[in-house]
């Protein structure tokens, strides 16, 4: 099999890069990581060398190039069906994909007001309209799925759905947005995962500062 190469941006800021990276790492799927930092306003012109959209992440697999986080997760799930990226049971798999699509397409108020910034000291900010409605909906998703699966993750074991919500774990914590015990329990479970720890350690060691994401 041709090797997998995942192009990503800064680990401190790039929420979309985190999603396929943590899904693949948690599943034990081997890949080469190529980090191209977006230390320019609105990205990096070098992204155009490998990305049709000028954005990250992008997965290269032989002649196949896949962009968008969820599309990459779906692609590697098909390549490695034994890795368990999605639940085996059809109903659980459908729900995991549904909430992943909801994350992909929604929660714009939260994403805009609270950009991912793993190094940011914990503290509240003034919130725009709609942010807490997004927070409430995400908490409901987490609560319902974990109640159904038994936890500790959304589908029981770590899955593509957890990968899609991984950047929210950071946002909820660093902007001090949540206090419910079950939400904090899920955050703790994700942060205890070895894949999360590996990403976070690298993010904290990065030298780049992107001012527009320093809320």
TrEMBL record:
It holds the Pfam family GST_N_2. Residues 4-84 form the GST N-terminal domain. GO terms for biological process: glutathione metabolic process; L-phenylalanine catabolic process. GO terms for molecular function: glutathione transferase activity; maleylacetoacetate isomerase activity. PROSITE patterns: GST_NTER. This is Glutathione S-transferase. It comes from Rhizobium altiplani.
